[in-house]
Every structure is written in C-alpha cells, then in structure tokens.
User: What shape does this take?
Amino acid sequence: MTLRDLTLAEMRDGLKAKKFSATELAKEHLDEIEKTNAHYNAFITITREHALAQAAQSDAKLAKGAGGAIEGVPIGVKDLFCTKGVLTTAASHILDGFKPQYESTITTKLWNEGGVMLGKVNLDEFAMGSGNLTSFYGHVKSPWEKDGKALVPGGSSGGSASAVAARLAPVALGTDTGGSIRQPAAFCGITGIKPTYGRCSRFGIVAFASSLDQAGPIARNVRDCAIMLNVMCGYDPKDSTSANLAVPDFEKALTGNIKGKKIGIPKEYRPDGIDPEINAMWDKGIELLKSLGAEVVDISLPHTSYALATYYVIAPAECSSNLARYDGVRYGLRVTPEGGGLTDMYEATRAAGFGAEVKRRIMIGTYVLSAGYYDAYYKKAQRVRWLIAEDFRQAFEKVDAILTPTAPSAPFGFDYKPSNPVEMYLNDVFTVPTSLAGLPGISIPGGLNKDGLPLGLQLIGKAFDEETVLGVAYALEQAIGFTAKPQKLAGAAA
Amino acid sequence: MSLDAKAVTKIARLARIAVSDADKEHYAREISGILNWVEQLAEVNTDGVPQMTSVANMSLPLRADVVTDGNQQEAVVANAPSSDYGCFVVPKVME
Assistant: This one.
C-alpha cells in the first residue's frame, strides 16, 4: 500500500488532516510516472517542476487550514486541454511545439480549487479513436494484461484511463465525444462520467466535434468522480453552449439508497453475436439493482442501431470544420514544398501533420458537407439524431435511469487488426447514442470476464440529472464490490 | 456510393490535404466502405422529423457588442511558425 493507492477522497481528507503533504503526494506520483512511462506511455509531457510548485502552494494553504475542494490532489490532464505555457499536442504532429497562451476553463477551475498537474496525458490523435492507437506519440498500454501481454486502454482518453488504473494519478481529465471517457474507463476497470452536454465548459479544449464534445473525470470510484464534477461543472460565458444552471453538490447524491428508483433495460443493447460474458455481466447488474430495491423496467430505444452511422456523419462533418484551422500559419507544424505557394503549404502541412484516421474523418466530413451531398448525408443524420434523442425522451417518461453494458467487448490486445475502419467504430456502439442525445453517462466496473479482464456497466440519465446517475452508480458500485487490480500491478507487488 | 480516384482528388482538394496518386485508390476504397455503411440511414423514415441542432434545447446567448479583449498581438503570434512585425508570414499568394 502506497500513497498512490489512496482514492481522491482519501487524499483530500489525508491532506486536510496533515497525514502527508501535497509535496510528498506529488513526488511519489512523479517518481512512479518517470519510472514507468517507458512502458505505459500514458504521459506525453511530465510537468514535474510545475507540479512541485503547485504542491508547495497547496502545502502553504493547508498549513493554514485553508485550501480548495481538491487542495493538493494530483491530476493528469488529457493533452486536449489548453494549459498556458505548457505544450499541448492533441497527440498530433500538426500541433508540434504549441504552447497555449491561455488556460482552459476546466483546468483553471481545477487549479483554483488546489489541483496539482502531474502532466499531460496521451490520447488518440484529436480524440479520434477507440484504442489509443492513433496518437502521434505512440500507443498507450493498459496495466491490464492477458497472457502476460499488455492490452489497449481504450480510447480516446486512453492515457487518462491507463494512468488512473496504474496508480499514476488518482484522477485524470478526459473528454467524451462518442464514448471516449466511458469506454476507456470500462477497459481499464475504473470509473468515468460524461456529464450532460453543456455542464462543463468547452472553452480551451481542442475541438473535435463541437455538438458532442464534453469534458469529464476518470477516477477509481464514483465518489471521486462526483468530487471532480463539483469542481468542473458550471456556467461559462466563454462557451456559448454552456448551461446556465445551478450545479448541485454531487457528493451529496451518493446516499446508497435507490429504493423505488426505476431503471430501464433497453432490449436493443443485446445485439446478435455479442460476447455472452457481456450479457451475463449486465444481467448480474440488473439482479443487484433489484436486490437494492430498484424497479427494473424493460424499455425500447428503437433507433439504437442507427446511432453509429449517424455519429459517423455528424462527427466527421464537425471535425472537418474544426480542423480546418490547422494550416501551418498560426501555430504548430509548417511544411512548405520547394517553390510552393500558400495552397501548396496548406496541403503539404496537413498531409504531413495529420495521421491516417484524422485524414479519413476530415475527408468523409468534407464529402458529406459538400454541394450535392449535404441533404442526403448531413441533414439526414441530423434528423435521425433527433429520433435517437426522442427515443431517450420517451424512455425517461417511464424510468429514472438506464442500465447497459459500456462496450460490446472486453479490452483487446495490440495484435487486434480490424479488417476495416467500421469494425473499430463498433467499440462505441453502446456509448454513441448517449452522446448524440447529449445525456449524462457513467461507466463503472461490472466485473471480470473469464480471462480476468474488466467489463464496464453504463448508467445513463436524464439531461442535467447527474445526481441520479451518480446515486444509482454509487449504490451499484457498493453492491458489486469490485476490488480487482490490474495484472501489471499485481505482478509488481509479487 | 462508390467513390473513384477522381472524387478523392476533389475531396482532398476541398480539405486541403495533399494525397499522392498511389494513395487515392486506397482512400477511395476506404471512404466508399464507410459511406456504404452509413447509407443504412436511408432506411429510417424521417418525413416531418426536424433536424437536431441543439442537444440542450437552448438558444444561443447574446452579449453586448463591446470589446472584451485586445492588445494581445504578442500572444497571438507567439506560436506562429513564421512571423514578422507582429504579423503572420506566409508564402507568396500572388503570382
């Protein structure tokens, strides 16, 4: 047992009680990160000096009995959040050397409440991927292993999930566009929540698909996610889609009592050919909810099977617009062919700077928005998206929350080679509908499969009802009692 | 929808991404595969269904039309691959 095994809540309370200092806590994490980063590759940039300076400030405040909600707590920041003066890459070659001149709203809030930045964590390039396999800075390994071989951490917040599971940070920032918080949390046996669209400011987050992108925390339990959400949520006039609503105290929602709560079980989340162990884990979760006094209700979300195709029109369309800004003029990489003009520079810079998946999505997005195809693809997808959101609206007239598996499979290895891009996209089949509807969703560990690998359960709530999502997730988490540690950590201890 | 190399040339040009002739066939095949898969959306009856444009059902806020920021020339060009006199420098545009 090291300080790194403590949860965020335990660190917060231990720091306040002066059982250890913020500096000790930061050092212990930084040492382990530096020792293991050659293996996990979870961090793109380790900010030791920055962290120790913040920790010293926290210690000064804590000594006076002062300090914020997370004073002295170490945090990994997905390298998609702009951090002033600190390299911010979005895991892309095209942002080479980019040091933002301003700080994102979410990270500003974290530092105001005493958070300590350990570094910037790896991700899929521009958050586009489901295995952290598209980063310019290389693959990230999960601490979970099969037959002694590392597995993928999921994506796109793969560095966040790997770091938290490997005890390199108690909590990390993630972002979720189609499942990028929930799927890696499931793959790494930890907990991650995507709040309602509009809860967390997008200001200063490198944009992928603006109508879907939402920040959230990845942590080792529900309480730690609630504590982080308390700090992260809130109205921000710098984000025109930020919700001007009061933010409740999410930690207070963790009562453990879910008697009489109605939980919907959508029949469409049992597609043919799905891993039977996923269904079994889901069924176990349903039984536990019943034993806790919740009422389980069969529901239907009839347009579920169209969500992925809808997503793969809308997300690339928005990405093709958002990523138009990377042109070699204002920041990052510039490639100018010999004797080339401005357009040659744009085209060469973008060809060299973007990876294969990002280029593919920009080209699809460009195509579906181009003259003659806009109605057939983009408008059509926006209408189907409305139907998907309507499915949820109708379901939530009958239920308080919805329980589903988080991902259709267990985490896979680096030898997994999908035969086409669509096969990789299927990883997000259970998380994308929630994103399209803008609803809050959490993934908690549901149990282990026969290979000893974690499988995730997802709880989905009504818009701006994170309290119910967290409350039900907390009760279910206590009932499941998941304590398994990744093989890599068990091996290190032996 | 099946794309050919010519269509890829057009998309790549619109997206300002240089694609070599050798890669065009590859892109054509891959993008066609994704578009064919996406075409399942045609099965869904969307007659009279509105387009979803806001997930939180909010209208965009307005603010007073006043200057809120400025005098940031140094910060604006701080990350530029090439700048001079506080301006971005690019290859010649006029022939």
